[in-house]
Amino acid sequence: xxxxxxxxxxxxxxxxxxxxxxxxxxxxxxxxxxxxxxxxxxxxxxxxxxxxxxxxxxxxxxxxxxxxxxxxxxxxxxxxxxxxxxxxxxxxxxxxxxxxxxxxxxxxxxxxxxxxxxxxxxxxxxxxxxxxxxxxxxxxxxxxxxxxxxxxxxxxxxxxxxxxxxxxxxxxxxxxxxxxxxxxxxxxxxxxxxxxxxxxxxxxxxxxxxxxxxxxxxxxxxxxxxxxxxxxxxxxxxxxxxxxxxxxxxxxxxxxxxxxxxxxxxxxxxxxxxxxxxxxxxxxxxxxxxxxxxxxxxxxxxxxxxxxxxxxxxxxxxxxxxxxxxxxxxxxxxxxxxxxxxxxxxxxxxxxxx
Length: 354
Ligand SMILES: [Zn+2]
Fold this sequence. Notes:
Elements: H1 3-10, H2 13-29, E1 32-38, E2 40-41, E3 52-53, H3 55-67, E4 90-95, H4 99-112, E5 116-120, H5 132-142, E6 149-154, E7 157-162, H6 186-199, H7 203-217, H8 232-239, E8 244-248, H9 261-279, E9 285-287, H10 295-303, E10 308-310, E11 317-318, E12 329-330, H11 336-347
Parallel strand pairs: 1-4, 1-12, 2-3, 4-5, 5-8, 9-10
Antiparallel strand pairs: 1-11, 6-7
Helix pairs in contact: 3-4, 5-6, 5-7, 9-10
This protein binds zinc ion.
C-alpha cells in the first residue's frame, strides 16, 4: 500500500467509525489503573466545577470499591505493579483539604476501610475565608441583584467588566457546569472572565481581588463555615490516621506555570516543610494546583525527592505515564451504578468482577 492510498483510507469516515471501537478495545487490553480525584463530599446548589459529591453517593462509591477490593494507596503507583489488564486497582485522592473531607468523607472511608490521600494547601489551614474560587462563585453566581458594571484593578491594570443581559437582576436557578458548558448568560460570563483573570495572580492579589468583588456584590467577606479549609489541628490528627496520607498541594494553591521558578520553589518546598513538620514524617506525594505544571515545577518536585505527583489530566494510568505527571479522573456526583458504568465503559477500569 502506498503512503498516499493509506492516507486516503485514513480519511475515510466509514473506516474511522469502524476503527474507533477497535482502538478502544486495544486500549482496554493495555495494563492500567486509575487515580480518582475528589474535592468535597457535600451538596451545594451552585457548583460550577463539579467539586461536590453528595455524602450518599460517596458512601455508595466507596462501598463499591470495598466490595471489589479495588482501593489501594497512591504509593502503589510509584511503580508499574499496580497496572493490570482488568484495571482493578484504584486510588482515592482529595484536593484542597476542605473541612468536609475530615468531617464527612473520613467516617465513610473508615466505614469501608478505604485508604485515601488528602492534598493539603498548607497556608490555607485554619483560614476563616473560603478559597478564592468559592468566594468568586458566591459573589457572582449566588448573590441577588448585582450592579451591571464592575471596575476593578487586577495585576496593576484597571479593568472594566459588564453584565450585558438581564441576568444581573437575579441568580440563575438551573445548574451550570463551567467544565463543559459555555457561559449561558452575562453573570456566568463575568464569573469566567474574572476566574481567568484572577487564577494567574499572586495569592495576595487573588485575596484582594475577590474581597473587592464580594464588596461590589454586597456579600460578606467570610463565607459559610462548611466551605472553609480544614484546620491545622484537623490535618495533624489526619496525618496519624492509618488509612490516610497527606500530600503537598503548595502553600497557597497558585497556578504554578504563571509564576517564576523562585516562587514555585517557595510554594512547593514551603508546603513540603510545613506538612513534614505537621505529619512528623516526610510527605511523599504532590498534586499540582489546577493540575497545572511546567518543567520548573516538575524539576522542583524531583529535587525535593517527592516520588509521585498528580495532574488533573483526565486519563487512566498506564505504563507510559511519568510518575511526576500521573493523570487523574475527576469523580462526579453519581450513584453506585453510574459510578461503576463510568469506570467500566469510559475508562475500562473495574472491568471484570473480582
Ligand atoms: Zn486544588
